[in-house]
Write a structure and sequence with these properties.
Helices cover about 15% and strands about 30% of the residues. The chain is of the alpha+beta class and about 300 residues long. A hairpin with a 7-residue loop joins strand 16 and strand 17 (about 245).
Length: about 300
């Protein structure tokens, strides 16, 4: 078990999301940066979908009642286990009674604290993550708070022979994307502006979506559509002409034209982008999407070999 002595920021339990619930109006949800969640879990030998704690900017203190191992990935928080540093992208042992403290992050937005075996929470509609707007899943359907106690999934004692860390990914702000269903309805000027101009992440950025600011795409004010299905990664353009990129907790339907679709391999970049960061879209083909997915598979394969001592 672990006790949350201090939670001064947005923290919730997340996994890789719920699939197949869109017809009920329930978003897929899950981790904003799914690759960092997977990475933290793999450093501990957990299942990729093991529930972990997603952390936004703030300060946190956790006390462990039982021995365990933890891994911290995603945004770069300053972390210590009592007086020992826990390095970003590494795993570390926690002994009974020791306190893990986190503060930050210095870079990025969302951090992921995975614990050996995972966190014990009930499955709701096919997932363990917290849907904050719907108030279900995770721990009592809400964000975590000081004084909460979390049960950990029982596991065999880990025998990690040596420390293992993961290479930090650089966020270049380039979002590879496919054209959306309504892109052809925008003017030539707007299409060129979308692909070639630099956009800026606005402060209007949360788990539902990120609004970008830049040259207004004027065609949007003339486009009126019936409600249609949307999902994370879709780039919508409301009448004001400033794109919105849908994120993990995005609604399941909307009426704004869909300019593009950010590929899954790059969604983490927007999730970890702070207000003011420059963003550019890069047009890719379906074959390039497959190549991007293979890049991640190779990354995790190299990590597995490192953990095996190969």
């Amino acid at each position: 078990m672990m006790r949350l002595d201090r939670v001064n920021g947005l923290a919730s339990i997340q996994d890789l999301g719920r699939q197949g619930q869109g017809h009920l109006g329930i978003p897929s949800g899950g981790a904003m940066d799914s690759f960092s969640l997977i990475l933290a879990n793999r450093l501990l030998g957990n299942e990729d979908n093991a529930p972990a704690i997603e952390l936004a900017s703030g300060s946190y203190e956790f006390t462990f009642k039982t021995p365990s191992w933890v891994a911290l990935c995603g945004a770069s928080f300053e972390a210590k286990i009592d007086d020992r540093p826990l390095w970003h992208g590494w795993r570390g042992r926690v002994n009974p009674g020791e306190r893990l403290t986190l503060k930050g992050p210095r870079q990025g937005v969302w951090g992921y604290l995975a614990i050996l075996g995972g966190i014990e929470v009930p499955e709701v509609l096919g997932g363990h993550g917290t849907f904050l707007a719907g108030q279900f899943g995770g721990h009592q359907g809400r964000q975590l708070a000081s004084g909460d106690k979390l049960n950990l999934i029982s596991h065999a004692e880990a025998n990690f022979s040596r420390p293992v860390g993961a290479v930090h990914r650089a966020n270049d702000g380039i979002l590879r994307a496919l054209p959306g269903p309504e892109m052809s309805q925008f003017s030539d000027q707007d299409r060129k502006a979308f692909w070639h101009n630099v956009w800026t992440v606005s402060p209007q950025n949360d788990r539902m979506g990120a609004r970008l600011t830049g040259e207004s795409l004027g065609s949007a004010k003339h486009l009126s559509l019936r409600s249609h299905a949307v999902l994370p990664g879709v780039v919508q353009v409301p009448p004001g002409g400033q794109p919105i990129v849908l994120q993990a907790d995005a609604q399941t339907s909307g009426g704004y034209p869909r300019m593009a679709m950010v590929i899954e391999a790059d969604r983490w970049k927007l999730a970890q982008a702070r207000a003011g960061q420059a963003i550019r879209f890069q047009h890719v083909s379906p074959n390039q999407v497959e190549d991007a997915n293979l890049e991640w598979q190779h990354y995790f394969y190299r990590l597995a070999r490192a953990m095996d001592g190969s």
